[in-house]
Amino acid sequence: MRHVFATVAACCLVCAAGSSAADPYPFGFPKEDARGGVGAFRIWHADGKWHLRSSTENSTGKKDVLMVFSGTVRCDGKLTVEPGKLEARGRVADTLKATADGKGFDFEFKTYGATDEAVFRAATTAKTLTFKLKIDGLPAPPYRVLVGEKSEHPDKSDFKLPAHPKK
């Protein structure tokens, strides 16, 4: 009897360790504002493309503080990225740079009462996207990362999503 209990307990521990909350549903633009009237990342998938947007347009004191949204997006396959809305000069100049291996990009968006955006597409053979997001040099609090039309949040600022999500 003790052997059966130990086996069941071990299986429960393995199952609990391997399980995680479902990935946020990425389809549709995240409409909800981040709590506290602060800037946020908005991430969504539409028409075969991913969108990563930094946003402070609805923030309290939005013209008082420059916010810096930065990070990386990596893919287990090839990925193409293009700028959406980015500034090229001055205090709010943004950077968006594809990695040398073509499997991701690094970015720094300086957002001041507006939005900045990268649009990217993963190769058909790709399985996973890995996001590492920061706001003002610190890991982005999950409540400031809004994914899909339900404005769901990942568990932490470093998270993964399927490269080709299913509706």
From TrEMBL:
<feature type="compositionally biased region" description="Basic and acidic residues">
    <location>
        <begin position="148"/>
        <end position="161"/>
    </location>
</feature>
<feature type="signal peptide">
    <location>
        <begin position="1"/>
        <end position="21"/>
    </location>
</feature>
<keyword id="KW-0732">Signal</keyword>
<protein>
    <submittedName>
        <fullName>Uncharacterized protein</fullName>
    </submittedName>
</protein>
<feature type="region of interest" description="Disordered">
    <location>
        <begin position="148"/>
        <end position="167"/>
    </location>
</feature>
